[in-house]
Design goal:
Blueprint lengths: L4 E7 L3 H11 L3 E2 L8 E2 L4 E7 H10 L4 E5 H7 L4 E6 L9 E8 L14 E4 L2 H10 L5 E4 L14 E6 L3 H5 L2 E10 L1 E5 L1 H5 L1 H20 L2 E9 L3 H7 L7 E4 L5 E9 L3 H11 L2 E7 L6
Parallel strand pairs: 1-4, 1-5, 8-9, 8-10
Antiparallel strand pairs: 2-3, 5-12, 6-12, 7-10, 7-11, 13-15, 13-16, 14-15
Helix pairs in contact: 1-7, 2-3
């Protein structure tokens, strides 16, 4: 019987971003309408769609061997899991998301201390209560079932909400008075699963490929032929922190120079490289960089 790894894929806002990351890492995940069991082109993996908010609990309980969720939901659920890798991606950007304490723009409240005895709505009740306790503030924290941004000031005095860019908060005329937690996506595993030799190897392999796919994001492979006499000029043009590979060609008066650079850097690098004598410049997309 083939070994199986039960892998949780976050449903909702991270679903497509997760599938795209796995595609770059080498796995194709296909979602079926009304099915919570996505197809994956690996007979050793069985996928299950689970809300990120619940993922850590199911991994902790051993119902899933591994999964992807936010650090915030690990903290919120107090899940005891193995954090295998940090994967800094989200539905919008590669920046961490933030849980922030917000009040209406015209609110008199300036700090968390001003919310003593007030009402706060949030989806992250545990995180908010821990934050208030740390700051010595007693306030009523209620669970928000959605549309949290519109609840202040009519229904509550303040909210704790997740944001990447802050645009939704600004659109709803909310002002951030503090950041409660910064969070990134984590690849997590059940402790017992991670002690199993086969599952640990499979989980570590997946983590390596996912991190490799993330490392390659926004980078390209740039290759060119350079007259040996112009080599130092070309190397001076290339980004200082890169380590180009230089190899001899059949014609000893020429060398091949290969390097990895940021995709956005190419437009500024190619003209001076060409002027310095480089020819045959080729930009190649890359999916993974494995150190």
């Amino acid at each position: 019987m083939t070994n199986k790894l039960r892998l949780g894929i976050p449903a909702g806002s991270l679903q497509e971003a997760t599938a795209e990351l796995f595609r770059k890492a080498g796995w194709k995940i296909t979602f079926q309408s009304r099915s919570y069991f996505p197809d994956i082109d690996d007979p050793e993996i069985e996928c299950l769609l689970i809300r990120a908010q619940e993922m850590a609990r199911y991994v902790d309980a051993g119902i899933l061997d591994a999964g992807l969720t936010g650090f915030d939901w690990i903290c919120e659920t107090h899940a005891d899991v193995e954090e295998v890798a940090e994967l800094q991606f989200s539905k919008v950007s590669r920046r961490p998301v933030r849980w922030v304490l917000c009040v209406p723009e015209d609110s008199p409240y300036q700090t968390v201390k001003d919310l003593e005895g007030k009402r706060i709505a949030t989806e992250a009740v545990g995180l908010t209560k821990s934050y208030l306790e740390k700051n010595g503030v007693n306030a009523l924290v209620e669970y928000s079932w959605g549309a949290t941004e519109v609840k202040a000031p009519t229904l509550v005095d303040a909210i704790v909400e997740i944001t990447e860019t802050g645009s939704s908060l600004r659109a709803n005329k909310l002002r951030i008075i503090d950041t409660i937690l910064q969070s990134t996506t984590r690849f997590i595993a059940n402790h017992n699963s991670y002690k199993d030799e086969w599952k640990k190897a499979k989980i570590d392999d997946i983590a390596m490929m996912l991190k490799g796919a993330m490392a390659a994001e926004g980078r390209v492979y740039l290759t060119m032929n350079v007259p040996r006499e112009a080599l130092q000029t070309v190397l001076n043009i290339l980004p200082a922190l890169k380590n180009p590979t230089v190899s001899s060609l059949a014609d000893d008066s020429w060398v091949a120079v290969n390097t990895i650079v940021g995709e956005r850097e190419v437009r500024d690098l190619v003209p001076p490289l060409k002027k310095a004598g480089a020819t045959g410049l080729v930009e190649i997309a890359i999916n993974k960089i494995i150190d």
